[in-house]
Design a protein that fits this description.
It contains 8 helices and 9 strands. By secondary structure, the chain is an alpha/beta fold. The chain has one domain: NAD(P)-binding Rossmann-like Domain (Rossmann fold, 3-Layer(aba) Sandwich), CATH 3.40.50.720. Helix 7 crosses helix 8 (213-219). The two termini are 14 Å apart. Bound molecules: NADP nicotinamide-adenine-dinucleotide phosphate.
Length: 227
């Protein structure tokens, strides 16, 4: 399968990229980002753009996408609802529509977050906006669409969050982070399991569109990798 990847310069996207490069089911990765992801691999192609709202030029390369792993996002801390909505909702839907306009019908996997509000009308701003984003993605004519809602993600294989707040959080939790996914699978997963779960969702599908932490651990567990 050919994967279009957003967010490869970040922690979740970087983790997804590592698993894609190792997995024989993935024949190619097209990473779309503002700056190079710093990796080179025969399966990896990069399309760089200062403004991901305008991917018209990349459409020919999007047309044969079998899957899109959308791992791009920002923390809502310190952001107005308008600014957060522009990156979280508007940019995500813009890229999704560019894929469809290019003629692709991929499996679209969106990395959302635990606590997302599907009613899109609750009190928490980020949860409302992510809820609206999920709902609008699920209404688009993709082959299938999955909304992944991880909570805590233990960073493995050297991936690091670009967000200082997340890095501080991980540093504080470092002593605990290796046991959390085993102790609390409903609340914690690893970056490797998340990357593998994305591939498995695209390759095999899943009975539900909302994929919580426990599902991610089930989908991404080691013994299921070698199909
Ligand atoms: N990390 C976690 O523990 C965690 C847990 C649950 C959910 N999530 C969700 O997972 C997603 C990714 O999180 P992360 O931890 O990987 O974040 P991260 O390390 O901060 O990386 C964010 C990625 O998004 C890109 N990005 C942000 N704003 C952009 C914009 N305006 N235009 C183009 N690219 C932009 C960044 O590209 P640049 O390098 O160009 O800035 C980077 O590739 C987020 O939606 C987050 O809410 C994360």
């Amino acid at each position: 399968m050919k994967v279009v990847l957003l967010g490869a310069t970040g922690m979740v996207g970087g983790a997804a990229l590592l698993e894609c490069l190792d997995d024989d089911r993935v024949t190619g990765v097209l990473s779309i980002s503002r700056r190079p992801c710093g990796m080179r691999h025969p399966k990896l192609a990069e399309a760089l753009s200062d403004d991901l709202f305008h991917l018209e030029a990349a459409r020919p390369a999007l047309s044969d996408a079998d899957a899109c792993f959308f791992c791009l996002g920002v923390s809502a801390v310190g952001m107005t609802e308008a600014a957060y909505t522009r990156v979280t909702h508007d940019l995500t839907l813009s890229v999704a529509r560019d894929l469809l306009a290019a003629g692709a019908r991929p499996v679209f996997c969106y990395v959302s977050g635990a606590g997302t509000d599907s009613t899109a009308s609750g009190r928490s701003m980020w949860a409302r906006v992510k809820g609206r984003t999920e709902n609008d993605l699920l209404a688009l004519p993709f082959r299938a669409a999955y909304m992944l809602r991880p909570a805590f993600i233990q960073p493995l294989r050297g991936v690091r969050s670009k967000t200082p707040l997340y890095r501080g959080f991980y540093a504080a939790l470092a002593p605990l982070s290796s046991v959390l996914p085993r102790l609390l699978p409903g609340l914690a997963t690893t970056s490797v399991a998340l990357g593998r779960a994305l591939i498995r969702l695209a390759a095999e599908g899943y009975p539900r569109p909302i994929v919580e932490s426990r599902d991610i651990n089930r989908l991404g567990s080691e013994e299921r990798r070698v199909a």
